[in-house]
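REQUEST FORM: STRUCTURE PREDICTION
Request ID: SP-0412
Submitted by: Lab K.M.
Chain count: 1
Length (residues): 1294
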Amino acid sequence: MAELDLRLPESNIYSNVEDCEALPLYVRYTSDDAKFHDKDATVSFKDTIAQLSGTHVCYLIHRRQKGRNKVYEELAVKFDDLPYCMTAQLARDEYTLRAPHFTIKNMVLPEEKDQFKSRKCEVRFVDLHENSFKLINSAGPYWIGHVNEITQFMKDCFSLPIPPIEIQIEEDKEMWQAYLDGLNALLENKRDLIKIQSINKQKGGLLKLNFDMDSYAQNLSIAISEELSGKCEMDASVSIDDGECLISFDSYQSIPEDTIENIKTIGRDYCYQAESNPTNTVSGKIAIISDPEELAEISSSIDSELAEFGVNLDKDESGEFHLSSDKDIVYLQKIVDTKYQGVAEVVGTTKLFMPLTPTADSIDTIELKKDLPDECQIQPHGKHFVVSSKRPLDASLPIFSKLRFASCMVSVSPKQIDSNIEIEGAIIKGNAYSWIVNDVNELNKLDRLFNDVRKRYTNQFISSTYFYAFAPQIEKSKLADLKLQNYGKTSIHVDVPRSCVIFSPKSEEDYNILKEDILSQIGDSICAEAPLYKPTAKVGFLCENEEYRRGVFEKVNVALADKRSNFTTNRLSKDAKELTFAFNFEEIEERDNIEIIIKDALASIHGIKVIYENDNNKGITQWTLSEDLSLLQELDRKLQSDFRNENVNYINGSKYDRLSDVDEEELAHSQYSKESIVRRRRRLYLQKNSLSIGNCVRRTRDYAIIEPNKDVIELLNSKKLKIVSGDYIQFPAMGETMELMRQSKAMSRILKPESKYNHRPINPNLPNFIFDPKYASETVVDINTAMEDIRSHKIGNLNEKQLEAVTKSVLSKDLALIQGPPGTGKTTVIAEIIWQEIRKNPECRILLTSQTNLAVDNALERLQGQAGIRPVRIGKPDKLEPEGRRFSLPVMDSWAQDSKNGDDNATKIWIDRIVKKISNDPKYASATNSWKRELETQDKHSRTEFSRLYKSNVNLVAATCSICGSRDFMESYSDMFGGNERTDMFFDVVIMDEASKATPLEMAVPLVLGKKIIVIGDHKQLPPMMDENTIDGALEKIGKKDIAEKLQKVESQFKRLFEAAAKVRKTIVATLDTQYRMHEQIMNTIKQFYQEELASTGGLKCGITETMDIPDLTNKGSRWHGITLNPIIQPSTHAVWIDVHKPETYLSPGYKNEGELKAIDLVLRALQQADGFNTFQDAQQKPEDREIGIITFYSAQSREIKKKYKGKSYRMDVVDRFQGMERNIIIVSTVRSNPKNNIGFAKEIERINVAFSRARRLLIVVGNKRQFESNSNYAASIANMETVSFEQLKDAVR
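STATUS: Completed
RESULT:
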């Protein structure tokens, strides 16, 4: 105790206590106890024990306290009427106490006397190690001999039964603390890690840290990747570029809905908005088979197939087959038609050349000689005639026209040839240089050849000889006549210049006919030598024909014409070789169906193939988030305020970055992936090595200005700390995380009200009565008198139970609790409470809050036009119902600036109401007319002024629980009432609706703001829904998996409070007993759930029995529907069970039931065919009244329903998300059907209650009647329904 000596003088500790009635109560403590107390408490430990030392009447209660590793027995001690409670454990000596812990509260004793002890005590606080004998010795003579009496008293105290409420309080506090721990862990996990780009010192020792914006984008990428980790079968690629964040998977992935919502939240935190959900896309192309390699394979395959027919394969370089007979072509055609139809075709290429020559007796060489120079000689040579000459012939000689020039051989001979002398173009033959000239046009250059030789042999005699070969030639006129006779015949071509006939026969038979035909046409002067028939053919590929390609794709488009709406892309390439396509899908079945559509549509079209991109016919999943300008603007505003004075941590960049290095050996021996190892390393490093460097003075997206704390200044000055480029700083994460921080602060204010770091709740008694309603002030006013006063001033029609609930709420000082079964008029009661509170106190500030927008807006609708009540609705206008939107500040401000914007707003309604109330009496006309005209004109000045006046006189603020923790809420409050969130924000009354569904986190912020809390709910409906992957996930990460599992099953705080208060504070609890929503038949399916609470009043009652069967669809009290379809539905039918026995299907996770899906479809068709249904629908004024609600207990079944009826005017969801809603017609799918009669969580009465109580006029339940009747609650419900078999339903539908 050397370091902290708090002991009082010895005379105060060891006083002689002569009075044996005052039991010496010694409490041992250590300096650690004092430090622990002083860490948070506003009153020091020293002052606290000084105040409590002395003689008091002490009240002692036995309780248990759960520690970190064990449960401790302890006593809770109340000292007289002092506002202190002490808890302490029994010391080893068994007659003193140790480890005191103090809270400031006026402890309320249990009502049962056997649950506490009272005794006058002399209280003294002593050192833990003080000698026990010395203590007793100093207590006085009596106690020296009666130590056993003290020991026995302690034993009796620790043997007291622990009051059930104390057990519940500890459980509740443990749960609330678990929420807080999980929330804080979540917040820690959401801290932004931002890389520093540069550092500048500023005046006053401030540091300006400029951010590396790439790391900002990386934070978003990491946050999204971590959220997706383990949620999908493959890792996602997250890329951020130019304001677009693309999340992509190489293959189709089904992303859980909660993960999608979490990513949207992450995106909003970084100012990225997702305009839609992930898109699943299959893309590819329909292509003409034209790939060269593929065509080569086809060609090779044809060759192989043809060889197998025994054909001698003779194929030239051009790909032409030289065949032996037409039979070979038949084989080739069969191969192509069978295997490659639409890809290739057999093209006959047979061409047979038949030369035409004049007959031998038709050539007169004597006549020809006459046309030649004298020296020339002409001799026949085979089929040619050779003219020899010593000189070149003139090409204009007549012989060149009578015969066809074939070639000329030039021979130039020196006297003695030298083989070493080469002449261009010549070859040496014997003693001569020789040239061959085939072109008649070159004949005039033959002299040049002779001269070339003479130039090289200048001293020798040179001789030359020219040999001209001529072919006999038919007269052109005869050939032209033959061509004319056969002109236009595709199989015969007469080639006049070449004196031949070219045959293109289709077969040998065809050739023989063509040949005979030509031979019959030529005269005796022409000789024709017909060739043997040898067919040829080629395999041609159709892809080479553009016209053919376009024709194929015309067929494709025709085949897909009816399905074009399924495709997002359908584009033909310029060369008409491929058609690219893409389609989006939501479910695997939808994808497979479209794939079948493509396959079936193209089945009859040959020569094409479907090529999926990257060979992936399963599709890819992509999702784009875009940077949102409005969110950026809002962020800039938030950054200026939300981060001021926030703590900033420093992280050494080089050390942190090295955590990414994982060697192969470590990876080989680890059960985790490299990414998991790095994540774990980083998390641990940040927990242990983050250095708090100071508070944020200013923050923008690009930089932060930090005021370093003293320790950091010393480290910087001594150079022990250097903040450099590449290091990191850590902020609380942006966006919605700030709202979570406010929830955390509100939770701390409730759980740790004595902490000097927390502002106590507006009602300092809240931390007590929120866990134990005994601490709520008792109502002392005569309730009957108050009820009569309210009855005479009420604004609505109230039954007795509603009136009682309103009265108890208005009279309560701290807390009121109202249970409202389905349809019992909770909204009516809320509106009346608001009116009565304002009537009682016109300056009253009221906060109306709920978990859902719908509940808040419904209450505002009831208050529409009520004088004296001026509501404001806080929240984004586009999220609000019309009934709430008109009270939105942005809507009112927009109208004030421009009358064209949203004229359905509270300010205009107020002005219009004033105008209506202005007197029309002529005697006041001079005074009122101008004012009335000004109000009716509603110019900008009037609009702005009345808007200002409205806001300055607001007395009702309406917002959801989550919005109450937002910056928007804080700023709106300051705008209307002034002050700031830390010190001045309060409401005289906080009304919390749908409280049974609210978690402590959602309740915390509204609770701490209220002087009085009115909580309304129904614990017989569904409890809070835990948001998976948030609080419970964060608890698991910090080693509290058992608590996380408990949170999943936790009861609502409303239920625990209501049931406890019903025993100890009956003046603050009320239960509504008359419902006005549903027909009595429907009500009878749920009334068993309220039998116990409402036993004294005869159970749940129907308040519309007199009007519910009136056959008038416009009557507000009527629940008649007028629908008839025998034998399923009659106008008198309001609750039906469709008996379906089809077994369930397990989908891991969840269940679906195909039989019930078919039954739902039949029910919908039955309704549409039923007499009176269209009349019923036409009579409904609101869109939601025409909607049919389809509810199921399992999300897997809900997905099937939503997929099947997408775009239809049905409201479809799981029962958990339907609470708070109602529809005229409700269909419920129970899903479970199995041999074990296991109905899973469908057995929970809260789930049954919500599902069956959503219908106003007609409830249709689809399920296995025998199985569900095995549950007593369902049996009671089914007993009040008419039963129809699936077969009856099927037969009734046309």
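NOTES: The CA atoms of residues 794 and 832 lie 7 Å apart.
Reviewed by: T.R.
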